[in-house]
Queue: 4 jobs
Job 1
Amino acid sequence: MHNLLSSLRIDINSSLYLKDPESSSLGINIVKSSIDLIDLYGIEEFNFKKLAKAIGSTESSIYRYFENKHRLLLYISSLYWGIVEFQTVVQTNNMPDGMEKLMKAVETLFSTPQTKCTSFEIEGQKLRHILNSEFVKAYHHKLVDEENEAGYFSIYKRLASRLSEMIVGVNPRYMYSNSLASLIMEGSLNQYFLSEHFHNLTDCHSKDNLYEFYKDLLTKTLTS
Amino acid sequence: MHNLLSSLRIDINSSLYLKDPESSSLGINIVKSSIDLIDLYGIEEFNFKKLAKAIGSTESSIYRYFENKHRLLLYISSLYWGIVEFQTVVQTNNMPDGMEKLMKAVETLFSTPQTKCTSFEIEGQKLRHILNSEFVKAYHHKLVDEENEAGYFSIYKRLASRLSEMIVGVNPRYMYSNSLASLIMEGSLNQYFLSEHFHNLTDCHSKDNLYEFYKDLLTKTLTS
DNA sequence: TTTAAAATGATAGTATTACTATTAACTTTG
DNA sequence: CAAAGTTAATAGTAATACTATCATTTTAAA
């Protein structure tokens, strides 16, 4: 068996970009640098002018890769969820015990993404930080239904579906596996945001704490 | 005891507006109509030009009430959470049983807000719908720390704190009451959004369903 | 190695947005 | 009735989010 990690490529919906950013060094720079800048400015204050300046290129060149910054954010989001999905699958593969498997998946969800499996040299922490702050804006959007139809959220939904299946694996009689899966995924971003900006709204100020909170919640919900 | 409802006024942080919209019919129209338009267009496509046109006034007049549309959204959000907090307090008042009290609060959280207790004739459903879609953008914002410092989220945080206390009332040994309270409040908006736009990501497609999901979650988490 | 094709850069321009400023008209209150 | 306060009308500005065009550079195929 050859090295799965090195030959793997996260398959991002091609209608998210005009030209595949992985196909050129400019494209790679666009994605890499956009992550720095979105993290720095937030998506509202981020624009292609700033990005062009940062990579020593021009706006028009960037527009050849991405239609607009919203699509770029969706691309970055897919990249994140793709990494998380990949890690989840690898880490939980062949685990016989359902509960152990689910817990491993949850732990992965709350961990820093391993960006090595991409063409981009990205800091995992930065990528996660963007998702914590900006992902909700990627889907709380007027065009969400069209974009969903176009498959822009398919990786996210697939991961939710995997989690849901794991939940059913633990307790086949549990009636809210989809809602619970979404709740955990949403929480994996939001609880970090709360910890950073609304300290008193959460009791979890570390990855371990958070993991314990959800572990407790899931164990009790699914086994009692 | 005089009528609490009729004399009550939801106390919204006065630095959210330049001139109190409740102080004039123009102000009331601004808030009323903005709810219609934000619901229709979403906050990104909504602007003061459209709002001015809708109420037969001018942009400059609106700018005398609100510094910008973001502040207006924060105002509307405070109004929503103020109503929910009020209802929660009224409904759970003097309930001796902790669990019953918490469940009542959760039920209120998932209900349509009673807008009668405001100066504005607003459709509760519309107000809730805006919150479902737009509230996350009100606080996932680059200036969130300053705005939080300025007290723009104090009603939201106070309600979270009340819920947290109720949770502790049910189980004083439970260690994550704040996180759990936030999780429920967040869920009270997000799960509706999922039901509308990502049908497969949730199992709850009615208020009752949703309420049952959280009731189950809370009962098991706090009593086992 | 030439040549065509593709990618990128440079520059310019447009429509819209999010305001600010000024002055005039109207309304309310003392 | 006069003064003060409120609103309307109009104009203007800086920034944003693009689009278009054409020149130049890079790459890849013959």
Job 2
Amino acid sequence: MSDFKELLDRDKVQQCPRHYVLALTDTLNVMNGKWKLPIIASLLHGKIRFKDLQNNIDKITPRMLSKELKELELNGIIERKVYNQTPVLIEYILTESGKNLTGLIDSMIDWGMLHRTEAIKSSWPND
Amino acid sequence: MSDFKELLDRDKVQQCPRHYVLALTDTLNVMNGKWKLPIIASLLHGKIRFKDLQNNIDKITPRMLSKELKELELNGIIERKVYNQTPVLIEYILTESGKNLTGLIDSMIDWGMLHRTEAIKSSWPND
DNA sequence: ATTAGTACTATACTTTTGTATACTAGAATA
DNA sequence: TATTCTAGTATACAAAAGTATAGTACTAAT
């Protein structure tokens, strides 16, 4: 469907495929940083609360978790549901877009594994 | 092939699919930052020199370009070829792993575009 | 009145990433 | 001898990302 090479024809680089560039930078922004993927990962098996996220994700501070959740919500990846109980209950769930990331994450894993075998072929230090 | 959901079975999160996690973080690291993709993009149509990269990529400073090229080389995404001429000629080219990123980049573009249509459905500000 | 549970926020700090501007080295050319 | 070419490096600074640690607001139970 979309061929990235198009993006890179010398003539086209600057002018043309704005929507591709935007889509790509959107995607990068969504996954950007140390904590986004672990959070998305934790959400893939359903709704989950703040404290549980904090327990699931090793070494994340409440500050970072809070900040990242806000960004993910703003970007339309997760939804924040408030239940008016006492003590208040808040749950985070993935939106459709968030769920759709699964395929992309799989592609990333595939590339990463392929890359490791390539790298070993070129006798690259394996950790 | 690789199902990311596996990664997220509560029981497995911490212990099991280390190779998946490693592969995924490898991939994130490779694309990470402001300049990696533009550089990879510029390299997709063949070998290119430092100064040409600097001209191709808007506003990149030689310091950042140099730093990013080193990282990409270390990560096995590009190769640096030195020709012993005067003045010295140095060319950068993608490795096989680097070329293989095309498919992944396409997946990212696809997700980004899908996400934009989803976002518009939920009346999210477009830009 | 005190303690505990939920979901965070505040403050100060360190580290990483990025910017601005100038400079270097080695050899050929004018 | 001075300038030009390629491919960067050096230094100082600013901004963004992340860490550490403590504290807040609300309510319910003890």
Job 3
Amino acid sequence: MNDIKQFLRSNDLRPTKQRIVIAGYLFDGTDKHVTAESLSTELAKRKHIISLATIYNTLHDFYENGLLKKLTLTSDRVYFDTNTDDHHHFYSEKDQFLIDINKNIEVSGLPKTPKNKKINKIEVIVHLDK
Amino acid sequence: MNDIKQFLRSNDLRPTKQRIVIAGYLFDGTDKHVTAESLSTELAKRKHIISLATIYNTLHDFYENGLLKKLTLTSDRVYFDTNTDDHHHFYSEKDQFLIDINKNIEVSGLPKTPKNKKINKIEVIVHLDK
DNA sequence: TCTCAGTTTAGAATGATTCTAAAGTGTTGA
DNA sequence: TCAACACTTTAGAATCATTCTAAACTGAGA
């Protein structure tokens, strides 16, 4: 709890009640994938009612501070990943199946980067079917 | 024109005026990336006014028939790609920069596919910065 | 404790996409 | 050629995730 406050402070985030609850849930040690909606639902199960606006704000604040990764898996909604290491995903739209690929993936054969640009990150999504 | 009609028929798509115009634009030989909105704008420039609903319907019909690829680059909107070959992308959100990587990319080091699933496709997105 | 910038919130607004149901149009068989 | 119908198109409403607004609230420092 004080750890969480300290953690938030060290990321220039004022440790408000809501942020403490959200960080406590997200950064409990196990990697998680959440959407604003799923996070709201999970917190509600734990009797923590936080407005959706705040959940969106907080996810973005955390993202802006590098505490979360943003995933673009579908255009329906945005997923955030608590695992901010360089990694990739297995994903299946139908089953809402989404798991990390932590093993080191090698992407080779890339052409040279377009003029005046630099690579920010490489995202590999392995789309699965049943 | 009759080619297009034939092309549509061979894909179980009734060759309506609108589909002929859209297919004529999309499959003119040059690879294209479009969104419903951008397609609508391009057609309008060519004096072809087609309702957005029809544009959405048609993009989906073409997609369902394998004439287009769907790209998930951002959660803001859906991109369709007329290049249906196995290929990947350089993408920059800020600049709306999006180009194909046609060169063969090799993705190695993938862990084994989760039980009872099979790989549908592998999508590599190289996110760029200025 | 006082003060205020930073936060939270309900509810409205936005914007891409989908839905509805009514009007229009290829296609087919006679 | 044409009737008849299933398939399409369309305007406008509806949906849904997300963002915005502006008012109330609350950490943090003095």
Job 4
Amino acid sequence: MIKLDIANAIMQAHPCSRATALQAVDLLTERMKQALLDGDRIEIRGFGVFEPRPRKRGMGRNIKTGDSVAIPKGKSIRFKPGKDLRAIEVG
Amino acid sequence: MIKLDIANAIMQAHPCSRATALQAVDLLTERMKQALLDGDRIEIRGFGVFEPRPRKRGMGRNIKTGDSVAIPKGKSIRFKPGKDLRAIEVG
DNA sequence: GTTGGCAATGTCGAGCTTGATCATGGAAAC
DNA sequence: GTTTCCATGATCAAGCTCGACATTGCCAAC
């Protein structure tokens, strides 16, 4: 599934041009990115929760040189699947 | 950020009633859930990638009894933040 | 206002995870 | 339809993180 599929979903819910739907998708992702970058978490009941989380590790490796490189501190985003997504049973 | 905020974002992109916006959000989450449950991964360039992943581990624990319990096989959803979200630097 | 999904707690183990680099496939933009 | 640009994959190593279970309280959702 790619952005176009999501745009199609929006078009189903609200008849409009594909361009408009794509704009909506872009705006959504933009808003979500903003929220996450802002440090806020996104909680959608029944779907999942996006949660920004600081990282601490610092050990990488260079394929070519095979040398270990220090990983600079940063943040990660964790997505916790909600109940509906946890409903995934024996695949 | 909760579902209402996302609905507001949609309303900004496409003037409509809050109910319609909420419907769009629900439809989106529904579609995404469907795709993930279907085993398909969602790839949004610049935002991130949702990827269903089978679990293998099998060691849990019971708080009360303190007894180890076998974790039933299942699946997990991994969200890989895209470049824009990796842009999170020193928080 | 009501409902009920989600968070936190705590343990313990093992698989998962990040990171750089280079080529390639494919998503996104034009 | 074409081009551009991003994500993936693989490796190695150390660390970290989920995973379930059971209860309580909060807050999202209706």
